[in-house]
Amino acid sequence: MAFPFLLAAAVVGTGMSIYGQIKGAEADAEAMKRNAASRELEASEIMKRTKVNQDILEEEGQILLGDQETFLGSRGTTFGSPLLILTRTATKIAREKSNMQMESEFRAHQLRSGANISRGLADERKQAGQLGAAGTLLTSGARIYDAGRK
Prior knowledge:
Layout: H1 2-74, H2 81-149
């Protein structure tokens, strides 16, 4: 008489286990996708901030060059080492802007790569949950069948 109750409990338990595996995998996958979206947003923000910082550097650099030109012009010198000073300043500004761009592109690339990995892992986690649920169904089905034969 206990067999029908045990059979029902095994079927319900199997169903709950399958449901839990699938829902757990879906939740993990969704978290990984949100993580990927966050990384994409951060990469985009890095590039925006870099543009703002480059614009500020350009403006400050132009002010510095203007100050140097004014100072050097007030001394009555317009060639030779004063031009070298202005050239070095302009080169330093351009190099700093270039370095900012390279560092930002590298960081943004790392974030986007991480986002791609997270999206791939999300899909794999969801599939793994489905496969685990299928395995649970098959294993439990075999156990229930075996118990019914005894």
